Amino acid sequence: MTDERERILLATQAAATFKPDYMTNDKLEAATKGHGSLVIPVYCAANSLAEDVFCSAGSSDMELLSRMTLVDAAAGSLPLDMVMEKAIHQAMLAGAAPENAALIVATLAYFTGSCARSGVPLGNRKLGAIARMHAGAPRTSAIALTTGKFTHKIPAFPAYLAVYNELMDKKLTRVDGAVLPPFIAGGAIYGHSALGEDINIPELASNTARVGTEAIMKSMHGAGITAYPLWPALIGAAVALEMIHPDAALGEEFGTFGDVDTAYIAGKGARDAAKLPPKIHVRGTHEEYDTARVIGDFGLILKDIGGPSVIASMAFEEIFAGFEEAAMIGAGFSGGPVNPPLGHVCGDCMPAIRLLIKHRGDPYPVAEAITDYKMNSFIDPEMALCSLNTIARKAETVSRGSVSHACILASEDVRDRAIYRRAVTVYEMMKAGKSVEEAARALDEERKAAVESRGSAVLSGFTGHKISLKFTTIKPQGRRTDEFTKRYWAFDSHVSYDITIDGKPYLIENLAAKAVPEFALNEKARENPDMGTALFAGAVLTQELQYIGHTIINVTVPAAVATLLGEDAKIASKRAETGAYLTKAIPGARDRAFEVARLAKKIYTRLNQPVAT
C-alpha cells in the first residue's frame, strides 16, 4: 500500500509539472508571440540586462554595472548601447513589436541603474531615444501614449487639449512672450538665467504637468472608470517635458546647482496632482525612490520612446508593480494582493534585478527575498508562487537568465508542496470511498475558506477597518442565460456574501449584476459610508477566486490521482472539473487534466516495472 501511494504521488507530481502549460488555463503559448501580452518579452529583456550587468566572464573590466549610469560621453556608442540593443533583440524575439520592446527595455534599464538622460549631449540623445533607435521604432510624440487598460484606456489627447487651452490663455506661466524684446528667448540670457531658470521654466514645468495629469484623471472618470494615478502622472510629465527645456538647471531656491532639473519639477507637479506618495520602495530590497524623480525621469523617457501600444502600457505598469506601494499608485496587478491572470505576472522582474545587484548576482538570497515578499503581499501566496513559477518557466523556454532563474528558485518548493499536499488529500479521500468530484470540490472549498480568512485580514489592514467576509453564493449567471456562461462562472458571476465592517453586518446580493450597478447608477446605499468598502472588499476577494485559471491544480491533480486509482482518464478529468466548481472559472481545465492524467498513467506504469538487468 505504501509503495502504491508513493508511486501515485510521484507520478502525479511529475505529470502535473511536466511543462508550464499543464499548470494553467491561460493561453500561455500565445504569450511567447506577443498576442495580447508582453509578459514573456519583459522576462527575456530582464534576463538579458541582468546577464550583461553581471557578465559571466567574471572579469571586473567586463562587468557593466558601474558603467550603466553614464550620463553623457563624446563617443559614437556607449556600453549602454550594446546592453540595450541586445535586450531589445531578446524582447522582439519573444514577440514584442519594436516600439513595445523599446519601452520595456528602457524601463528595465532605468531600474538597472541607467540615467534617464544617458546619452550624447550634442545630439541630445537620452535613454528613451536610445531604446527607440535600437529598436528601429518610428519617432512620434507623447500624443501616442495611452494609459493601461483599466476596463477602458485613455489616450494622451485630453492632456494636450487641456494644456494647450491653458497655454493659449496664458495661464501656465507669468511670463508673457509677447512683451519680450528680440534675442531674449532661445539663448542663454533666458534659458540659463533668472527669467528662465528661476521663474518661467519651473512654473511651466509644474503647471503643465499638473494640468495634463488632472485632464487624464478627469477623462478616466468621464469614461466611467477609476482614475488610477500612475499613468495620468506619467502622461502629464511627458507632455510637459515634450514642450519645455528638459535639462535646464533651476534657480538656487529649488536646490543646489545640478541637483534639481526640469524633469524633477515636472515630476513633482504631476505627482502632487495625482496625489502619489512622496516616496516609493522596491519590494525585497526596500530601496527608496523619490516619486517626483521617477515620474519626471519617465516623462523624459516616454516623450522619446515612440508609440507603444496599450499592451506595452500594461506591461510597463506591471514592472511598476515591483514597488511596495503598487496598489496605492495604480501600478499593475502582479504585486498583489489579488493573483491576476498570467499575462500580468512580470512584477517580480524589477525587484529581481535590484536584488541581484544587492547580492552581486547570487540567485539564492534573491530567491529567498522574493519568496518572502510574495508570502506577505498576496491573499493566496501559495497560488501567487505557483503562477510565478509557471510564467518564469515558460519564459525560460524562450530565453534563460538570472531573473527567471531566481523566480523559479523562489517558487519551486512552494509549487511542489502545493501539488503534493493536494495529491495526498485526493488519494486519502478516494481510498476512503469518496468520489473524484468530492475530492476536487473539497480542494476548492479549502481555497475559498483560505481566501475568506486571509482576505479579510488583508482588507482590514489595507482599509483600517475590521472586516470579515464570508461568501454565501458563488455560481454562474448573475444576469445571462446562455449555455457558455452557465458552465464557466467567471464570465458572468452571481456572487453574494455576508460582510461585517467594524462589527456592522451587511448582506451583499449578486455583487456584479445587481449591487455594483445600483450603487453606481441609482445611488443605492451611497449615503452609507460603509457601502463603498463593502463592495470594494467583495470585488477584491471575488476576483481572487475568479482568476484561478492561472493555476488549475485543483482539477489536474484529482484527475491524475483518480486515473491512477483505476478510473478512465477522460471520465476522471470531466468529473474533476465538475467537482472543482470554483477552479472551473474559464474553459480548458478538463483538457489539461486529461493530458496530465494520461502522462501520470504512463509514468506510473513505468515506475511499477522492474529495472532491466
Explain the overall architecture.
By secondary structure, the chain is mainly alpha-helical. The chain folds into 3 domains: about 1-25 and about 435-613, no CATH class; about 30-135 and about 330-435, no CATH class; about 140-305, no CATH class. Helices cover about 55% and strands about 5% of the residues. It contains 25 helices and 5 strands. It has helices spanning about 1-15, 30, 40-55, 80-95, 100-110, 125-135, 155-170, 190, 195-220, 230-245, 260-275, 290-305, 310-320, 325-330, 350-360, 365-375, 380-395, 400-430, 435-465, 485, 510-520, 530-545, 555-565, 570-580, 590-605, and strands spanning about 280, 290, 465-475, 495-500, 505-510. A 3-stranded antiparallel sheet has the order 3-4-5. Strands 1-2 form a two-stranded antiparallel ribbon. α15 (about 350-360) packs across α18 (about 400-430). The chain is globular. The two termini are about 25 Å apart.
